[in-house]
Amino acid sequence: MITRRSLLAGAAALALPIPSFAASKPLKVGFLYQAPRDDKGWTSKHEAARIKVQEHFGDKVETTYVENVSKAPDAERVIRQMAQSGHDLIFTTSFSFMNPTVKIAAQFPNVKFEHCTGYKRSANLSTYAARYYEGRHVLGLISGHMTKTNTIGYIASFPIPGVLRGINAAYLAAKSVNPDVQMKVVWINTWFDPGKEVDAATALIQQGADVLMQHVNSPAAMKVAQDKGVHAFGLAVDMSEFGPDAHLSSLMFNWAPYYIKRVQDLLDGKWVSEDTWDGVGPGMVEFAPFSKAIPADVIAKVDADVKAMSAGTLHPFKGPLKRQDGMVWMTDGQIPSDEELKKVNFYVEGIQGSLPT
């Protein structure tokens, strides 16, 4: 699998050689989830990948999981318990687990850690994430064509770079095919709370949104869209069963190949600390089947853009681009580096509202 990776500077020099694991000793691999493992969203996808790991390796590997860990102090306790109980490799699957993972990794240098969506690494701590913004470009493209009210609603979790990149990419893509489009964002300050997600979806529809997107984890908004007769995109898993008429597609993530590779690396003594950030090309970012309500010419444009992003000839953030306050972000033709993308803390010009503090 072709990936876009940047190795942690000096990691190869810092890391001690890792011996291969004896066949008689199963590798113990733990997964930490911030929501129920069957949340029908983000966590469900990681759980499906854990099961794939177990199926792939059989008795060579023992996998465990802890679900519903929503607070940093609880995460620190659980990660420490995993490290103390003989886990060789621990995947922590939420941005909110970053600092607890960093802290425990420093205390257990012989255990390997992998943190999803974070940016802090060390000799025994890797990071990995999907280029969600590539998928959001596709959803924005469709939204710009499908909206009748020229209003797209976005249910957001926390104002972190990964979420803001998605909002900005979706808006820019929608604006490129529909100059009259506007985007309204409701922040709920949680990754998983179906009640708050329902309230946010309802509020956005009342403000005129007839297409909804989400960076939260349950299918609650899809159910509201179905009830209210508007369109929506799901997240992480195919959410069409919750809104068969509303569902346009779902932005999904395929973690299984990455997890299998990293476990194999450790079994072979080849694990090193690195940062992995993959998108539509390698297949870490994918889509649920597109609704038949989407016109054929729009699907053709989607296919063309996916191929171009995979080939590296199209970037969702190609300049000229300005921030919401009018400051220049990217000049004409300029493309942000990965480091610049990972520091995004603003709306692009044209998005309404202000960021929560």
Tell me what the structure shows.
It is a single chain. This protein is an alpha/beta fold and 357 residues long. It has two domains: 5-131 and 254-278, 3-Layer(aba) Sandwich (Rossmann fold), CATH 3.40.50.2300; 133-252 and 287-341, 3-Layer(aba) Sandwich (Rossmann fold), CATH 3.40.50. The chain contains eleven helices and 15 strands. The strands form three sheets. The chain has a seven-stranded mixed beta sheet, with helices on both faces. Strands 8-7-9-10-11-13 form a six-stranded mixed beta sheet, with helices on both faces. It has a two-stranded antiparallel sheet with strand order 14-15.
Q: How is the secondary structure organized here?
A:
Elements: E1 5-7, H1 11-14, E2 27-32, H2 42-57, E3 61-66, H3 72-84, E4 89-92, H4 98-107, E5 112-116, E6 125-130, H5 132-146, E7 151-156, H6 161-177, E8 182-187, H7 194-206, E9 211-214, H8 220-228, E10 231-236, E11 247-253, H9 256-267, E12 274-278, E13 285-287, H10 296-311, E14 321-322, E15 328-330, H11 338-341
Parallel strand pairs: 2-3, 2-4, 4-5, 5-6, 6-12, 7-8, 7-9, 9-10, 10-11
Antiparallel strand pairs: 1-12, 11-13, 14-15
